Amino acid sequence: MIANAFGDAVLVKRTAVGLSQLALAMESGVERAHIGRLERGERVPNFVVVVKIAKGLGCSTADLVKEFDTQLKAGADAKRD
Length: 81
What we know:
The chain is mainly alpha-helical. It has a single domain, classed as 434 Repressor (Amino-terminal Domain), CATH 1.10.260. It contains 5 helices and no strands. Helix 1 (about 1-15) packs across helix 5 (about 60-80). The longest helix has 20 residues, at about 60-80. The radius of gyration is 12 Å and the shape is globular. It starts with a helix and ends with a helix. The model has no long low-confidence stretch (mean pLDDT about 95).
C-alpha cells in the first residue's frame, strides 16, 4: 500500500509537469528503471531518492509527500469501498 501510494504520487506529479520517466531520471539522477519500479509500486524509496525525485520534478519534498498522503488516503478509501 505504501509503495503503491508513493508510485502513484510520482506518476501524478511527473505527468502533471509533462516529464517522461527518462526525463525525470535525467533531472533527478535516479535510474529510469528504478523510477519505473517505484511507479509500479515494486520498490519503496529511501529518503535520499525521495529528495532527488522531488528535485527532478521541480517541486519540494513536502509537495511530493503531500501527494503521497493524498494517494495513500485514496488507496485506503478504495479498500473500504
